[in-house]
Design a protein that fits this description.
Elements lengths: L11 E3 L2 E3 L7 E8 L6 E8 L7 E4 L10 E4 L4 E4 L1 H7 L2 H6 L6 E3 L5 E5 L6 E10 L4 E11 L8 E2 L1 H9 L9
Parallel strand pairs: 4-11
Antiparallel strand pairs: 1-2, 3-4, 5-7, 6-7, 8-9, 8-12, 9-10, 10-11
């Protein structure tokens, strides 16, 4: 892949303490796996950025809050730093690199997620895969990651199938 700048996150200062987000700096990764249809090894060059939802929580605009605690703001929502999400986010780079070996599921909004159950808790990691026409590769954007008390409906999908579908312009949809 050509060398392009990644989305890198500045440190967050929250309640007087500085938290580095360098572990959530974007990176390039190559996924290689056996294509069962052709019997050939398939290679996917993927750019991986992480959204700030991996270390922040949403806050409704009308909720009482300390303005100094707001770390990002958009038209739809304000985000505040979440120590729990931040601590869990250190697992994300390795989890992303190992997605070919993980079970993935269809999400509710044309996205996908995987669940880390190794700790016994449900750490849902939501992502979307898109084609990057200018580079001929793919983009795997990690949208959010957080603990959930329950797991959404579980319709499995192989990560390799997601990558192949996006690369080949074939939408990957849950079975009806």
């Amino acid at each position: 892949m050509p060398d392009h700048p990644h989305v890198n996150h500045p440190d967050i200062v929250f309640q007087g303490q500085t938290y580095s987000l360098s572990h959530l700096d974007g990176f390039d990764h190559v996924y290689e796996g056996l294509d069962t249809a052709s019997g050939q090894i398939t290679r996917f060059d993927v750019r991986v950025p992480f959204d700030d939802h991996c270390c922040t929580s949403g806050l409704p605009h009308d909720a009482p809050h300390d303005p100094a605690e707001v770390v990002s703001r958009s038209v739809r929502e304000m985000r505040i730093f979440s120590l729990e999400r931040y601590q869990l986010s250190f697992m994300l780079p390795d989890l992303v690199r190992g997605l070919l070996d993980r079970v993935c599921y269809f999400g509710d909004q044309d996205n996908f997620f995987t669940v880390d159950l190794s700790t016994g808790e449900k750490y849902n990691v939501y992502f979307v895969v898109s084609k990057v026409e200018k580079r001929g590769g793919l983009r795997l954007r990690i949208q959010s990651a957080y603990l959930r008390p329950r797991v959404d409906r579980l319709q499995k999908v192989r990560f390799g199938l997601i990558l192949r579908g996006v690369r080949d312009n074939r939408p990957v949809r849950p079975p009806r």
